[in-house]
Specification:
By secondary structure, the protein is of the alpha+beta class. The protein has one helix and two strands.
Length: about 80
């Protein structure tokens, strides 16, 4: 998709570029915040699985449906 913009003077061009940069920085900051939230949740999940494994002595089954085909186990939609 192409967008053609017309500016009356150089200052308008600079202002448009600055606004674009500001919006991109805000979007990047939001993505980085969300990434950090996901990292924290992932680490908590990993620690919980390790704790449960130590307490039960067994590996935690993956979420999703397991289809057992003789010697093959097929995990459908694991998380």
């Amino acid at each position: 998709m192409s967008i053609v913009k017309e500016f009356n003077n150089f200052n308008e061009l600079i202002k448009s570029i600055d606004e674009s940069i500001t919006a991109t920085r805000q979007q990047l900051a939001e993505f980085l915040r969300r990434l950090e939230d996901i990292k924290v949740k992932s680490e908590q999940d990993r620690k919980l699985k390790e704790l449960l494994k130590r307490l039960t002595g067994e590996e935690i089954a993956a979420a999703g449906k397991v289809v057992d085909l003789k010697d093959v186990k097929l995990f459908i939609n694991p998380d």
